[in-house]
Amino acid sequence: RGVEAMDDQRIFRAFCNGVFKMTYEKDETITEDFLIEELGLTMDIQELRYWIETMQSIIAKIAYQDMEMSQVEDFLQGTELTPNQIQGYLRFWRSTKSKVQLY
What we know:
5 helices
């Protein structure tokens, strides 16, 4: 369960949720080390930071443009995310969209 774990829908959804809490809710308990340990990732810190920045950018773009779910899916298909990651993100977004709009 290293980098491959990021292609698991549940793990990727949890990762997106962690990035959201870290970025928007300023939850200080969600750290890079916490994400690596809790999600069972074996990537190095640089790769993790890349993924965090990528997801921060995706969350911000989707929120700013106030996309509908079909638009979100179309947008994500134009990114480097795998089909499993896209499904994980969509599940994350359904439960988080209303919270993101508050920030």
